[in-house]
């Protein structure tokens, strides 16, 4: 059960996940994705959507908004 609880609190990253315990709130949550130097392409859309859905499922509204913005920006660039 402890392993399942730990998995439930992992934050998905593009190349893995952050296993920082939920009790140790990270001030850098989604820092890479909100950095002005962060660049993404349509090829990462499925990953960004999974990250957005993961944030929504965990009630992490701020993270969800970050990934919503990235997906929306991809939509704008595609049109």
Briefly, what is this?
It is built from four helices and two strands, in the order αββααα. With 79 residues, the protein is mainly α.
Description:
- This protein has one domain.
- Helices cover 53% and strands 8% of the residues.
- It contains four helices and two strands.
- Strands 1-2 form a two-stranded antiparallel ribbon.
- Helix 3 (45-57) packs antiparallel against helix 4.
- It is elongated.
- The N and C termini lie far apart (46 Å).
Radius of gyration: 13 Å
| Relative strand content | 5-15%
Point out poorly predicted stretches: none
Largest sheet: 2 strands, antiparallel
Helix proportion: 40-55%
First-last Cα distance: 46 Å
Features:
79 residues; mainly alpha; two-stranded antiparallel sheet; 53% helix; 8% strand; elongated
Set out the fold topology.
Elements: H1 2-8, E1 11-13, E2 16-18, H2 31-34, H3 45-57, H4 61-78
Antiparallel strand pairs: 1-2
Helix pairs in contact: 3-4
């Amino acid at each position: 059960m402890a392993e399942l609880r730990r998995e439930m609190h992992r934050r998905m990253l593009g190349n893995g996940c952050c296993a920082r315990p939920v009790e140790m709130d990270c001030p850098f949550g989604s820092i890479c994705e909100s950095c002005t130097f962060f660049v993404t392409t349509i090829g990462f859309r499925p990953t960004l959507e999974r990250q957005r859905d993961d944030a929504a499922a965990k009630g992490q509204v701020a993270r969800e908004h970050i990934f919503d913005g990235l997906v929306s920006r991809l939509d704008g660039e595609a049109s």
